[in-house]
Structures are given as C-alpha cells and as structure tokens.
Design brief:
359 residues, alpha/beta, 4-stranded parallel sheet, 13 helices, 10 strands, 40% helix, globular
C-alpha cells in the first residue's frame, strides 16, 4: 500500500485474510498522518525491506514521538546490497573489499532505530550483529515435506520454478545462462537434449526466442505437484541473489533432487554431494546434471537428505516459536530511549473502529 496506494480490493483480500486491515488510498504521503492518528495504538511496527525502512527513518527523524511506546522490528528478508555486488561482478565490475563492506554497512545501518531484526539466514544475521544490533533472529521459510511418489525411472526432464517477469533479475539471468551455456554441454554429455520445463510467469523481454522443442514455458500454474512429480532434476542456476532460495526449499520439500550454483548451496548452508549438487561453472553444472540424471542411488541419497533438512530447518513450529518470542517479548526500551510497560497483546481484538477501513 505504500508503493501502490490505490490497489484492487478483490485482489488484496484474495491474498490476505479479511481480519487484516489494509490501508489503501494513503501511500507514502499519507503515512505520517496515519501514524499521528494512531499514536499509542500499536505495540509493534514491522517494517519489511530497505525501501520501506528508509521511509520510516525519514518520518522518525522528524516526528520521533509518533513511535513512542512502540517496538520497531525490521524484517530484512535479505541484504539486497549483496545481490547488487554479485550482479556487478558478473558484469566485470569488481568491488574492493573495503567498498563492499561499506555498501553492506550502509544498508544494515538503515535499521538503526529498530530494536529487533529478522533475517532469513544466520550468515545475513551476522552482518547485523557485526554492526551493533543486539537482538537478531533468524526467521526463514515454512516448507512442509510432501515428497511426490514417482520413481526415478518414471521421471524425465529438468524443472525450474520461479517468476521470470523482469529482465534484470536473478531468475531471468540464470535461465539465459542455463539455456545458452549449460544445455549445449548437457547435450554433448548425454548424447541427447534433456527437456527443460520452466514454470512461472515468463514476461521478460530477454527470454523471447528461447522457447523450443526442448525449452518449454509452462506459464503460471495453480498446482505444482504434477510438475515436481514428473521431473527428474530441479535446476537452480542462480548467479546473483541475496537471502535464501525459497525455490530450492520448495523443490526439496517435493522430494526433487537439485543441481544448483555454489552461491545457492552457500546460502542454504547445504553440502555438495549430500543435500544437493553444487556447481562452480557451466561445465561443472552440465557434468553434475548428467551425473545425477543417470545415477538413481545418488538421486535417492540427495532426495532423502534434502527432505530431512526441510523437516528440521523449515518447520512451522520453529517459525511460530520465533515469532512468538519476537512479538510476545517485552521490549526493554522504546526508540526514543524511554522505558515502558509490557505492551498489550498484538492479538487483542481491534476496538478502534478499524473495521470502517474494510471494503
């Protein structure tokens, strides 16, 4: 609602439950007045991503009283500057270590007024801790194991799932690289082309002309299960990214072994040849696709270990426990340094006439 002030109500409530109040019609310009009208109402303000943190920082620097007795939580999702640095390196624009650290620090320091930080991985959380944030929690994805039943022999093809709408994104870059650099090498090794199925909105201009007999764009689908049950390998050819790859967790939850770049393996904290196969370049990626494609024992080993990692690392119980710790905890101080009492429960029923904002 900050970026798109006048969104569609039907779409909004297909996405969110009806008991979530959505403030359409205000946008960034209306946020200060909104907070002024609600001083003291909110126990917690959760801010997601750097661009929203910048907006709140601007308001806080001029009107700190609007945040009195309210705990601010920054949901980083990812350190986006890391993604930008990697993207520039692919273009040959290498960043010196000192400059790299400065860029990361600038993004991390956006969250200075937050008392609690949520990150998706321990590695990214360490950046916030390094720059002085004391209360940092890892909140990754919830992904429940649901392995598909088809056997190794019943499967064929390579699967990729993800949005491919915009040109300069990790997914589009990865698909272009995979089709142009990796697939010809796979064909040489396997002595036949292996079909690649791409599921997701593929609106990127750069992907035009890639579709062929062996590169199949399936578009967006409501149920991914048949695709994960039919494919033999999941590919994650991501060359620049931040955070943690949800698509990798999702593939593992469906019991589909994967070949991924070393970047993705590092972000997941998974080991090559244990939970996945990690490739360093196009030749290595093709060789590991070919190896996994023809080795049912390796396929079963990766499937089993990745499912175990999903079960232990992406459980709903773990996710809920972290949220309960963050939102039920009593903040020790407000953003202006004043002590205050334990906040009222954020789950208390709304009693300020807020239902008038529902359509």
């Amino acid at each position: 609602p900050l970026i798109v002030a006048d969104d569609n109500w039907d779409y909004t409530y297909r996405t969110l439950p009806r008991n979530v109040e959505v403030m359409l019609g205000l946008g960034m310009e209306g946020l200060t007045e909104f907070l002024k009208d609600r001083i003291g109402y909110y126990d917690f303000i959760l801010i997601s991503r750097p661009h929203n943190m910048e907006v709140v920082n601007y308001i806080h620097s001029r009107r700190p009283e609007l945040f009195r007795n309210t705990k601010i939580i920054y949901d980083a999702e990812a350190i986006f500057s890391l993604r930008g640095i990697l993207q520039k390196e692919l273009e040959g624009k290498f960043c010196a270590l000192q400059k790299r650290n400065k860029i990361i620090e600038e993004e991390v320091r956006l969250a200075t007024i937050a008392q609690t930080i949520l990150t998706v991985s321990a590695d990214e959380g360490a950046h916030f801790s390094r720059f002085g944030h004391a209360d940092v929690h890892v909140l990754s994805h919830v992904c429940l194991p649901r392995p598909t039943p088809a056997t190794f022999e019943e499967r064929d093809g390579i699967l990729f799932v993800g949005p491919m709408e915009y040109d300069n994104t990790p997914n589009v870059d990865g698909i272009l690289w995979f089709v142009r650099e990796v697939m010809p090498r796979i064909k040489q090794l396997a002595h036949r082309p292996l079909p690649l199925i791409l599921v997701g909105n593929a609106g990127s201009y750069r992907l035009r002309g890639l579709e062929s007999e062996h590169v199949i764009f399936a578009g967006p689908v409501d149920d991914l299960t048949p695709y994960f049950n039919a494919a033999r390998i999941f590919a994650v050819p991501t060359r620049f990214a931040a955070g943690v790859s949800l698509k990798a967790y999702e593939a593992a939850s469906f019991g589909l072994p994967m070949v991924a770049t070393k970047l993705i393996a590092s972000q997941l904290g998974w080991e090559d040849n244990t939970e996945l196969l990690a490739a360093k370049d196009a030749d290595d990626f093709a060789a590991k696709i070919d190896r996994l494609y023809h080795d049912p024992s390796l396929w079963m080993k990766l499937r089993s270990h990745a499912l175990q990692r999903v079960e232990t690392g992406c459980s709903k119980n773990q996710f809920d426990t972290t949220l309960q710790k963050v939102f039920r905890g009593s903040p020790s101080k407000t953003v202006d340094g004043n002590n205050h009492q334990t906040p009222k429960s954020p789950l208390a029923p709304m009693d300020h006439g807020l239902s008038s904002r529902l359509p």
